[in-house]
Structures are given as structure tokens and as C-alpha cells.
Design brief:
The structure holds 3 protein chains of 3 kinds. Chain A is α/β, with parallel strands linked by helices. Chain A contains 13 helices and 15 strands. In chain A, the strands form 4 sheets. Chain A has a 7-stranded mixed sheet with strand order 2-8-7-6-5-3-4, sandwiched between helices. Chain A has a 4-stranded antiparallel sheet with strand order 11-12-15-14, with helices on one face. A two-stranded parallel ribbon of chain A has the order 1-13. In chain A, helix 9 links the parallel strand 5 and strand 6. In chain A, about 65% of the residues are buried. By secondary structure, chain B is an alpha/beta fold. Chain B folds into 3 domains: about 60 residues, no CATH class; about 260 residues, Type I PLP-dependent aspartate aminotransferase-like (Major domain) (Aspartate Aminotransferase, domain 2, 3-Layer(aba) Sandwich), CATH 3.40.640; about 130 residues, Aspartate Aminotransferase, domain 1 (Alpha-Beta Complex), CATH 3.90.1150.10. In chain B, helix 6 runs parallel beside helix 12, helix 7 crosses helix 8 and helix 12 crosses helix 15. Chain C is α+β, with helices and mostly antiparallel strands. Chain C is globular and about 40 Å long. Classes of the chains: A alpha/beta, B alpha/beta, C alpha+beta. Chains in contact: A-B, A-C, B-C. Chains A and B meet through helix 1, helix 2, helix 3, helix 4 and helix 5 of A and helix 3, helix 4, helix 5, helix 6 and helix 7 of B. Chain A: The glycine cleavage system is composed of four proteins: P, T, L and H. In this organism, the P 'protein' is a heterodimer of two subunits. Chain A: Its EC number is 1.4.4.2. Chain A: This is Probable glycine dehydrogenase (decarboxylating) subunit 1. Chain A: It catalyses: N(6)-[(R)-lipoyl]-L-lysyl-[glycine-cleavage complex H protein] + glycine + H(+) = N(6)-[(R)-S(8)-aminomethyldihydrolipoyl]-L-lysyl-[glycine-cleavage complex H protein] + CO2.
Chain lengths: ~475, ~500, ~130
């Protein structure tokens, strides 16, 4: 049956060696009668590969995707190009069917990849040390906050703003609920900048959490905010976009203490939200509080350079309730993809990717602004993401019209705003100025033809105001 | 003949000016980035990443892959990790564009196929666990523990209760106390008795009106189903506390018994173990959680719901699927977006492949394989906790260590030379010199026999041969002490200057 | 002058204490015993407190780590930390050979008498032989 091996004869011989009449006898010896299942599991019947493949192919075809549609969606996950070599390498069974390198001697491939990944992240961020990855960007932001709180005894305030990813803040609220910490979400200014948070920093502040570029695509005054935090003895945590670093200053060069990112943009498919990887780097002196696995270099008995998991006393399997985090895995396969991706891009490829995003985003802003119906919200340049207001006040209908025309044209921000269906709590909501707005992301994959069609479809959409 | 260059680092292979990936013409008007952005925002140069040709990159990573043992290449009896075969159909189906290239913030009207799959999967998880409330948000088993404990905390807060202590077993995974701590609880440890089961006297002594949750692994990390389960259930619930089941060992009990039927109120699955998701070199996994109905409103969201359509014409439009928050009392999110969808899709394909009866066979063969190995191994290696087990067992090298200076670590290292991955060693902590073996159901009797033969030969080998093992791997035993004493956590160039 | 282990007092948690009087005040030098160092096996890291910190008897003041274990360090005395052996964390190898001289960790200005629970050398030896 499916992936099982034993023939009836195998089973007989094995039972004989065990000295049992049947498998049931072995199980019934241990599992009390009262808790045993008396009926079969009520699941769909077994299905062979041919039938299942056909059925799943039909099911998959019922989903719109970045293949069937042209994708202008962002909000923390992006339709960037993935070179074929990334898929080819990551589909090797030696990578994806191995596990945590508990036996370093037969895991040097994974360990070296982890070490290379960590080095690439330090190069990318300008910070001294990186772990081998966490679950995703959102939970990594919260892990960074917990790390800061644990280092800042006697300080329990966490300051962030309403233009940091709403879902990231949602996670923070859930994690902080039962521990001694106060979350302060400072309103951004009318341009969607977080500078007003500076006034909220005080001697009780453990850390500030900012996103740059932020959720609405605006650039933040990172150096200024980090300097103010440092002055007050607080740590600065920045959520960054890896692709932006082809052009923007690195977190470590702006006074940031802990930098985290969603690593999906580096060679990982959209996959409806996961699996992704959380990138996390920090200043070298904070390494003892860094959560997650870390690979390090050493030598073997013959003096040969090799790699091991190290600084493991930080982790749960040794320190148990005193560990830096409960995390006991890392996203090695996704980190491998990011490592291969960055190796293929190199410094110039990363810069070129950022330049394409910038130019195409600027072009998209320009063409959409020509319409009377739309207004680009927020001043200043964009890396790859910006906000458009629908003066026709029908974002929902507008985006439905675009979907019918083969476009995933943007993300409706209305439900995320204060009082909206996703953002009823102010701690996790966007400011009300983004009602009837949508968030647009333009990656290097978008062509002029696609952008023109996007603008045309949106501009020709029926509007409630005009109908 | 091994390619020696493959173990050079990317950074050592780098040559200025090499490049694999190019985009070419913009196709839109170019912009002057230096003018568009303020100076304070821009880097002077891009990050100092290595510069490589595509051929460099492919040969490097393919070369490195050959230094790993994996399920596809070797028997991998790593106890507690359920290293079963990772079906290839899972990979191909999960890579269909309609699953793989779906954006997490797409409108649900274009997600009906995927949401149907996820809805069905929620139902399957509920059926297998006997616990009706399901959230598939958590990204890993430990993440599921944390999410479920946050659910428990929300429940007790709603009850106006000040229960603040989580009890964990001394044989439990380290994640249990670490998760409890992160969820804001204090922890106390409950001892194991001489049989490796929960010490009921110690449990009684530690249960009181401050106890919120007892975290139980059953079958436990010794591979034993706790036959006192009914009494444990009674004791914990009489004390007003909840039972959390660490689902790490679900592979032993699929269709045989259900956590919800033996008293668990909350649990997590490890689909990357039980439901064949590949382990990915350490991740990704997923950690869906199941809870009793009275706890379901606190679950993290979103979850999938469905509404029956009126006047539907065929199967494809009978229902409309929605993403919703479990309730206004939900703890919120524990990660961004829906969850580790890719891992969940693989679990769904696996469950559909076996069906209900097939799943029971999975557990039966997992139990059979482990007991067969145990019946052979016990003749030359002590197995302190009995003659029978569920899906794994824990042997001890204590006697061999005294008699022949042969430790669990030595056995683990030497078995690599025989072409097998090592069992888990030094866990659980309640067994000295622990050697924890989990064969899984996807190994043949021939493989198990060969493994036993190798283990036996090792116990007969000379001390020196074993202490220097492994002999056949690219490296010998690494120096962990220096690695931790003087950590080198990134490559630095020959001048000793970090590129950062 | 080498410290003589047999003249020191010991805590159950393996810290040794050497008390001297200087200018009317009592100072305790504190370290961990050779037995403890051997048990911990290949120390890799030590976390020390700041000078000026006030310690209670039994308070955790730092940690030592081997590759796969962490052990908290507990103060055997009450008082204020007046000196910390900052060279020690970088030279943990030396602790193996010299736990009682080079291996000193802290100097504390005592704010109270030594607790009665501290053992003399013979009693501590007995504890170690029973544990080993």
C-alpha cells in the first residue's frame, strides 16, 4: 500500500522475532482498551497517484495565481523573478530530505550553506552576525522585540508605528499579551512617516520597531530614529526589504541594532504565504541573545576546516525554560534558496533588480496619476511599492474588475484601516487616511506593456461615482 | 573522485566582474536614482556580495549537496524526528502554479480551489485528533506549542483565573518549557517513574489551583504509550487544568487512538514528520493545532470556513470558501499570512494517498518496525524501558561505556561509516547514554536487518577504531569546543577584515 | 602565593570562598572548585556581573557554559562586587589547571558574616566523593 514495504512474510518473520502474535497485540499491550478507536478514521478513501494528480491539477487550476494573472501585489510578499538554478539546486533530495545537522560529519553540505547564508546576510545588512533563519518576517520581528526586552531589564516599553506591517503588529500583540511589556503604536504623520515616534521614546523604552521602506512604501528617517533611540538607551529594530538593499543604505550603516526581513523576495515562491524565511541579523555583541540556530566554523581532528552548529547553549534543548526562544528549527531549505539566489545576483544583479523596481514603480505612478480617478498617496520616491487612492471610492469593485481582466492589480487597504474588517483594533490597524486606497507593488518582472495594461484596465473600470 | 573546489566558500570562489543574472533593458523611461532619492537613504555601493558565474554556483551547491546524508540517500533512524520517505508526488503536485504561485493577499474569489483543499485538511486534522477546533497558522511544532499555550492563557484570562503554571515532563522536548515561558507561564517539571511513564505521585504533588496546563508527550519520548492515561486525564481535569499533547509522536497512533479521546484539550501536529513533508535540512515544517470546542474561539487566525451556495450546478461551486478570524476572542496571529501552505498541501496529498484505513497501516508498520529492531538490538545493547514500544525505542550505552569505553556518541559516529544516519543520542535526558531509534514504516526488513548487523558489529569493534570514527566521511569529528569558545560565524577575507 | 584549597570554605553549588580583611573591612574572593570545573568539562563561556552590583546569599551572579550545558553561578556571600576577573572569560582553558588562583572570579566586600551553610574542605570533599 502506497509507501509501505512489508510483505505478509516479512510481517510474519518480524512478529516472530518480537514474540507477538499480531501487531494489534503489541499495541493493545500499551494502549488501554477504553481509549482505543473503535471505528476507522472518517477520511476520504485512498487515492492512487494518477487519480490524485488529475484531481489536484483541476483544483490548482481553480486558483488565480501570478502565472495566470499579472501580479501587482506586495504587502510583504512579492512576485520577483526566480532563476532556474535556484529551483534546480533546491530540488535535490540531498538537501530537501535531510534534517537538522545533528551529525556534522554527514551534514557538511547543509552546514556550509548555513554559514554562507549567515555571511551573505551580514554582507547584506552591514551587521556583524546573523542566525540561520527564523520562520518568517512577521514572527522574526516579534522575536527581535523579545530579544530586546530580554536584554533591557527594567525597561518594558516597545514603540512602533501604524505604518509597520499590520500583520507584524498583530503577531506582536499576541506574543506580548501575557508578558510584562507595553506596546505603544504611535500614529504616523500625514505622509506616512514614522518620525513622530521619536517623541514617544523615553527611559522606559526597551526598543523601537520600524519598517523601511514601510508598509505604505514610504522611506523612513532610520538614522535619526536610531540615534534618538540610542540616546535614550533603547535598541532599534528595522524591518527591511532585502531587494531594496541593492540601492538603499544597509541597516547596520544607519545605527540599527537588530535587522529583520521577510526573505521570500530572495528566490522563494509566493506559495500562499509560506513556507518563507525570517532573516535576522544583529550587532555582534548581542549574539548571546540571538534566537535560532547558528552555524560556525571550526576544524576537525585532522585540522580540516569544517562547520558545526554552535552557541547551542542559547537554545531550548539545553536551556529549556531559560532559552532565548522556543525555536528549534530553521528554514534551511528556504535559506538555501536565498543563498543560491544571492550568489546568482551578486552585488550588481541586486543593484540592477532594485533599479528595475525603482524605474518601473516610478513609471506606474506616473501613468496612474494621469487619470482623474486616481491619486498617488504620499510624497517622495518609491522602491517598489506605493499607495493609490480611488477617488471613485470603489476599490473593491475596481480590483474585481481588474481580476476579471487578468490582473491582480493591488491590495485593498480599506479592511486594514481603523474600524475595517481586519483592523478593528487600533494597535494593528492602518490610519484611516488609507481608506479607499490600494497598495501596488511593481517588481522587476513587470514589463511596460503590463504596466500600461494595468493602468488602462483600472482607468476604464466602471466607477460607482460615474455609473 | 571528489571535487575539492566544492568545499571552498562562495566568497573564495568570487572574482570581481563575474555575474550570473542580468535583466537588461528597462523598457520604461530610466530614472536617475541618485537624484530621485535623498543622499541619506542611498548606499554608495551595493552590498559586498560574492561575484560568481552561473556555472560556479551550480557546481558549488551540487557539490555541497553530496556531503549530506538524507532520506533519499540513506536510512535515517533519527529518533523523535520521524524521517520517513518523502513522496515525490507531493513535490510535483505542490509545485503546480495554482498552489505555488499564489499570493497570500489575493482576493478569496480567486482562491477557491486552494481554500477548499485547506478546509478539507482542517477537517482531516480534526478527525485524526478527535479535537474539532483547528488552526493551521503555526509554522513549526514549537510554534504550535506556543500558539496553543497562548490559547490556554486567553481561556484562563477569560475565566478570571490566575492559573500561571505549566507542568512539563522531565522526558519532554526542551521546547515545552521554553514555549511555556514565552507564553508567560512559570514551569514545573514532573518526574518520570522507573518505567519511563509519568510519575503519578509527583504529578499529584505538583497539581494545584495554580496549574494551567500539563504538557504531555504520548507516546512519550521513550516511545512508550502511557498506560496510565485515563488516570492522568482524571487527575489533571479534576484539578481544573488542561492537557496539552505534544504531537511529535503521532506517527505511532494514527487511527489507533485519538488525543481528543484520551483526554487532550489542545495539541499540535508535525506534518513534516507524521504526514511526510520533507524536513528541508532543518525546516520548513508546520505546526497546525487542534483544540476542544470551548477553546476554538481563541485560536489564531485566519481559519477557513465555507457557506453552501444556493442553486449550485456542480461540485465546483457547491460551496464558497472564506478566510475568517475564529472569533473576536482570537489571540490574533502568530505569523504573517495564512501559514506554511506549501507544507500543508503536501500533508493533504499524503492523507488523500492513504485514506483512513491506510493511515492505520502506517502506524501499525511503524510500530512493527520499531519493535522488530528492539527485539534484535536488546541482545547486545541495554534497553532500559522494556521489551515493547510504540514507534521508537531508547537504548542505553551505559554498560558499554563502563565495559568498553564506548559511548552513545561513539556509536553514533561509527554507524555513519556503515552508511546509516545515526540515531538520536543523549535524548531524552532521563536515559543515560541514550540511543533513540525510530525506523518509521517506510523501511524494508532488509534495511532494518542491515542496520542491526552494523550496530552489533560496532559493539564488537576495537576501542581505537571507534573513538576515531567516522573514518569514511569528508571530515572527522569537529572541534565543538573551539567553535563555541572563539565563534567564527561568518567568512572574513584573508586580510581578516569582515566584508561588513 | 598559591591559595590552599584546604583552607577555603565551599558552597553546596561548588563555589569556593576565601575571606581576607583589609582596612577593617572583610572581602571575599570567589571562584569555582576544581571538581566543578572538571565536571563541567571544556568550558567555553563565562558571563560575569558588573562591579558595583550588590549580591545576596544564593543570588545568581553569572553563568558558565560548556558546549552542551549551562550552569548558573550563585553567590555564596552577601555584599558588593568590588572586582571582577575580566581576563578569565577569554582564558577558560587555564581554569582547568588553576581553579583556585588564576580561577578567581569575583571579589566581594562583605555586608554580613559568612552564612553557616558554607562547608569546610573536608565536608566539601565528602559531598564531591558522594556525587562522583
Amino acid at each position: 500500500m502506497s509507501y509501505l514495504f512489508h510483505t505478509d512474510e516479512d510481517r510474519r518473520e518480524m512478529l516472530k522475532s518480537i514474540g507477538a502474535e499480531s501487531i494489534d497485540e503489541i499495541i493493545n499491550d500499551q494502549v488501554p482498551e477504553a481509549v482505543r478507536m473503535k471505528r476507522p478514521l472518517d477520511l476520504p478513501p485512498a487515492c492512487n497517484e494518477l487519480a490524485l494528480t488529475a484531481e489536484m491539477t483541476r483544483l490548482a487550476a481553480r486558483n488565480a495565481s501570478a502565472d495566470s494573472h499579472v501580479c501587482f501585489l506586495g504587502g510583504g510578499a512579492y512576485d520577483h523573478f526566480i532563476p532556474a538554478a535556484v529551483d534546480e539546486i533546491a530540488s535535490r533530495g540531498e538537501y530537501y530530505t535531510s534534517y537538522t545537522p545533528y551529525q556534522a560529519e554527514v551534514s557538511q553540505g547543509n552546514l556550509q550553506v548555513m554559514f554562507e547564508y549567515e555571511t551573505l546576510v551580514t554582507q547584506l545588512t552591514g551587521l556583524g552576525v546573523s542566525n540561520a533563519s527564523l520562520y518568517d518576517g512577521g514572527s522574526a520581528a516579534t522575536e527581535a522585540v523579545l530579544m530586546a526586552l530580554s536584554m533591557q531589564r527594567g525597561r518594558n516599553k516597545v514603540i512602533t508605528t501604524d505604518v509597520v506591517h499590520p500583520q507584524y503588529r498583530d503577531i506582536l500583540v499576541a506574543y506580548l499579551k501575557n508578558i510584562d511589556a507595553e506596546l505603544v503604536v504611535v500614529p504616523s504623520d500625514e505622509n506616512g512617516h514614522s518620525k513622530p515616534m521619536i517623541d514617544a521614546i523615553d527611559d522606559q523604552t526597551a526598543c523601537v520597531l520600524i519598517q523601511h521602506p514601510n508598509f505604505v512604501g514610504q522611506l523612513e528617517s532610520v538614522s535619526e530614529i536610531a540615534a534618538a533611540a540610542k540616546e535614550a538607551g533603547a535598541l532599534t529594530i528595522q524591518v527591511f526589504d532585502p531587494v531594496s538593499l541593492g540601492r538603499l543604505k544597509r541597516p547596520g550603516d544607519m545605527g540599527v541594532d537588530i535587522a529583520i526581513a521577510e526573505g521570500q523576495s530572495l528566490g522563494n515562491p509566493l506559495a500562499y504565504g509560506g513556507p518563507y524565511l525570517g532573516i535576522m541579523a544583529c550587532r555582534e555583541e548581542l549574539v548571546r541573545r540571538l534566537p535560532g540556530r547558528i552555524a560556525g566554523q571550526t576544524t576537525d581532528r585532522r585540522g580540516k576546516r569544517c562547520w558545526v552548529l554552535t552557541l547551542q547553549t542559547r537554545e531550548q534543548h539545553i536551556r529549556r525554560e531559560k532559552a532565548t526562544s522556543n525555536i528549534c528549527s530553521n528554514q534551511t531549505l528556504l535559506a538555501l534558496r536565498a543563498t543560491v539566489h544571492l550568489s546568482l545576483l551578486g552585488p550588481e544583479g541586486l543593484k540592477e533588480t532594485a533599479d528595475h523596481c525603482i524605474a518601473k514603480t516610478a513609471y506606474a505612478k506616473e501613468v496612474i496619476a494621469k487619470s482623474d480617478r486616481f491619486e498617488v498617496v504620499g510624497e517622495g520616491p518609491s522602491l517598489k511599492e506605493f499607495v493609490v487612492r480611488d477617488l471613485g471610492a470603489d476599490v473593491d469593485g475596481l480590483l474585481a474588475h481588474a481580476r476579471d481582466n487578468g490582473l491582480l492589480a493591488g491590495i485593498d487597504m480599506t479592511p486594514m484601516c481603523v474600524g475595517g474588517s481586519e483592523g478593528s483594533e487600533t494597535e494593528v490597524a492602518l490610519p484611516s487616511r488609507y481608506e479607499q486606497c490600494f497598495l501596488v507593488a511593481v517588481t522587476e518582472k513587470r514589463s511596460r506593456v503590463e504596466i500600461d495594461r494595468w493602468a488602462k484596465v483600472l482607468c476604464e473600470a466602471p466607477s460607482m461615482a460615474t455609473v | 573522485m571528489r571535487n575539492q573546489q566544492s568545499t571552498q566558500l562562495l566568497f573564495e570562489l568570487s572574482r570581481a566582474g563575474r555575474r550570473a543574472h542580468r535583466l537588461g533593458d528597462l523598457g520604461v523611461p530610466s530614472v536617475n536614482v541618485d537624484e530621485l532619492f535623498a543622499d541619506e537613504a542611498l548606499a554608495e555601493t551595493p552590498p559586498p556580495l560574492p561575484e560568481l558565474a552561473e556555472g560556479d554556483v551550480v557546481r558549488h551547491f551540487v557539490g555541497l549537496s553530496t556531503l549530506n546524508m538524507s532520506v533519499d540517500t540513506h536510512f535515517y533512524p533519527l529518533g523523535s524526528c520521524t524521517m520517513k520517505y518523502n513522496p515525490k508526488r507531493n513535490e510535483r503536485i505542490a509545485s503546480l502554479p495554482g498552489f505555488l504561485n499564489v499570493h497570500p493577499l489575493q482576493h478569496e474569489s480567486g482562491l477557491q480551489g486552494l481554500l477548499e483543499l485547506l478546509y478539507e485538511l482542517q477537517g482531516m486534522f480534526a478527525e485524526i485528533s478527535g479535537l474539532p477546533g483547528v488552526s493551521m497558522q503555526p509554522a513549526a511544532g514549537a510554534h504550535g506549542e506556543l500558539a496553543a499555550l497562548l490559547v490556554a492563557a486567553a481561556y484562563f484570562r477569560d475565566q478570571g483565573s490566575d492559573r500561571s503554571v505549566v507542568l512539563t515532563a522531565d522526558s519532554a522536548h526542551g521546547t515545552n518549557p521554553a514555549s511555556a515561558q514565552m507564553a508567560g507561564f512559570k514551569t514545573k517539571t514532573v518526574k518520570s517513574n522507573a518505567n519511563g511513564l509519568v510519575d503519578l505521585e509527583d504529578l499529584k504533588a505538583k497539581l494545584d489551583d495554580k496549574t494551567a496546563v500539563f504538557m504531555l508527550t504520548n507516546p512519550n519520548t521513550l516511545g512508550l504509550f502511557d498506560s496510565q492515561i485515563e488516570e492522568i486525564n482524571q487527575l489533571v481535569h479534576d484539578a481544573g487544568a488542561l492537557i496539552y499533547l505534544d504531537g511529535a509522536n503521532m506517527n505511532a497512533i494514527l487511527g489507533i487512538t485519538r488525543p481528543g479521546d484520551f483526554g487532550a484539550d489542545l495539541m499540535h501536529y508535525n506534518p513534516h514528520k507524521t504526514f511526510s513533508g520533507p524536513h528541508g535540512g532543518g525546516g520548513p515544517g508546520a505546526g497546525p493545532i487542534c483544540v476542544r470546542d470551548f477553546l476554538a474561539k481563541y485560536l489564531p487566525g485566519p481559519v477557513v470556513t465555507r457557506v453552501e451556495n444556493e442553486g449550485a450546478s456542480g461540485d465546483d461551486d457547491r460551496y464558497t470558501y472564506h478566510l475568517t478570524s475564529p472569533s473576536v476572542d482570537s489571540i490574533g496571529r502568530v505569523r504573517s499570512f495564512f501559514g506554511n501552505t506549501g507544507v500543508l498541501v503536501r500533508a493533504y496529498i499524503y492523507l488523500r494517498t492513504y485514506g483512513g484505513d491506510g493511515l492505520r497501516h502506517v502506524s501499525e508498520d511503524a510500530v512493527l518496525g520499531a519493535n522488530y529492531l528492539l527485539s534484535k538490538v536488546k541482545h547486545f545493547l541495554d534497553v532500559p524501558h522494556g521489551d515493547r514500544c510504540m514507534h521508537e525505542f531508547v537504548a542505553s550505552a551505559t554498560r558499554l561505556k563502563k565495559e568498553k569505553k564506548l559511548s552513545a556518541m561513539d556509536i553514533a559516529k561509527r554507524i555513519l561509516d556503515y552508511g546509516f544516519h545515526a540515531p538520536t543520542v543523549y535524548f531524552p535526558l532521563v536515559v543515560d547514554e541514550a540511543v533513540m531509534v525510530e525506523p518509521t514504516e517506510t523501511e524494508s526488513k532488509q534495511t532494518l536487518d542491515a542496520f542491526v548487523e552494523a550496530l552489533f558489529r560496532i559493539t564488537e569493534e576495537g576501542e581505537e577504531l571507534i573513538h576515531d570514527a567516522p573514518h569514511s566521511t569528508r571530515i572527522s569529528r569537529p572541534d565543538d569546543v573551539t567553535a563555541a569558545r572563539r565563534p567564527i560565524l561568518k567568512w572574513t577575507d584573508a586580510a581578516g577584515e569582515s566584508a561588513t | 602565593m598559591a591559595r590552599d584549597p584546604s583552607t577555603l570554605r565551599y558552597a553546596e553549588t561548588h563555589e569556593w570562598v576565601d575571606v581576607q580583611e583589609e582596612g577593617g573591612d572583610k572581602f571575599a574572593t570567589i571562584g569555582i572548585s576544581a571538581f566543578a570545573v572538571e565536571q563541567l568539562n571544556d568550558l567555553v563561556y563565562m558571563d560575569l556581573p558588573e562591579v558595583g552590583r550588590t549580591l545576596e546569599v544564593g543570588e545568581e551572579f553569572g553563568e558558565v557554559e560548556s558546549v552542551k550545558a549551562v550552569s548558573p553561578l550563585y553567590s555564596p556571600v552577601a555584599g558588593e562586587v568590588v572586582a571582577v576577573h575580566t581576563d578569565l572569560p577569554d582564558n577558560l582553558d587555564n581554569l582547568n589547571d588553576d581553579a583556585f588562583d588564576f580561577g578567581w572570579i569575583l571579589k566581594v566586600k562583605l555586608s554580613a558574616d559568612l552564612p553557616d551553610s558554607l562547608m569546610d574542605y573536608a565536608a566539601y570533599q565528602k559531598q564531591c566523593s558522594e556525587a562522583g
